[in-house]
Design a protein that fits this description.
single chain; alpha+beta; FAD/NAD(P)-binding domain; 2 domains; two-stranded parallel ribbon; 5 helices; elongated
């Protein structure tokens, strides 16, 4: 957002599929030290607002509870419009809320909220999932289905690539132990390890 504004974008709109967060932490839902999901304006949001590139002069550059349906373009293949719809708290479209934003450039910056469970491997294999939607696993990374292991974002949740790499190595060691009965490979982390905090 900040780069787009500094590069001279006439207008910038950031879509967020989640609803507008509350202004203050809900201690019952997100007690300290959990990082709270509250409404914040970053320096880039303030910059977009102050330079008049946000959708409204009194707002930041975000549209909350909005989901992209499709893009349209011109004959030369350039994007010209982004079609969106407002969504409810379960991300279902709200009838009659569709609209189109003019667009010359669309940048995708997507977060991860869990593995897709719609007609995918999780349901086909009968894998157990945690309440937050990630694949459940035991202390050796094995799922409830013998011989099926889970690692990375699908089991840990969104995280850094270094955690996914370490988990991949740990799963390789667990599979090797299962196949050979020997401890030959290092296990850099366990499935329940978390980053250390200062």
């Amino acid at each position: 957002l900040g780069t787009a504004v500094r590069e001279g974008a006439a207008s910038v709109t950031q879509l967020d599929i989640y609803p507008l967060p509350e202004a203050e932490r809900d201690e019952d839902v997100e007690p300290w030290p959990t990082y709270p999901k509250i409404y914040r304006l970053s320096a880039a949001h303030e910059e977009a607002r102050d330079l008049g590139t946000a959708p409204a002069a009194d707002a930041d550059a975000r549209l909350f509870a909005a989901s992209t349906l499709r893009f349209t373009g011109d004959e030369a293949g350039h994007v010209r419009g982004l079609h969106l719809v407002e969504v409810d708290e379960r991300r279902r479209p709200r009838p009659g809320t569709g609209r189109t934003l003019p667009a010359d450039l669309v940048l995708l910056a997507l977060g991860f909220s869990g593995p897709d469970r719609h007609d995918g491997l999780i349901d086909q294999l009968g894998l157990a999932v945690e309440p937050r939607g990630t694949i459940a696993r035991g202390p050796d990374f094995e799922t409830n289905v013998p011989g099926v292991y889970a690692a990375g974002d699908a089991a840990r949740g969104q995280s850094l690539i270094v955690w996914a790499i370490a988990e991949g190595r740990a799963v390789a060691a667990a599979v090797d132990r299962r196949l050979t009965g020997a401890e030959r490979l290092p296990t850099p982390i366990g499935p329940y390890d978390r980053p250390m905090t200062a």
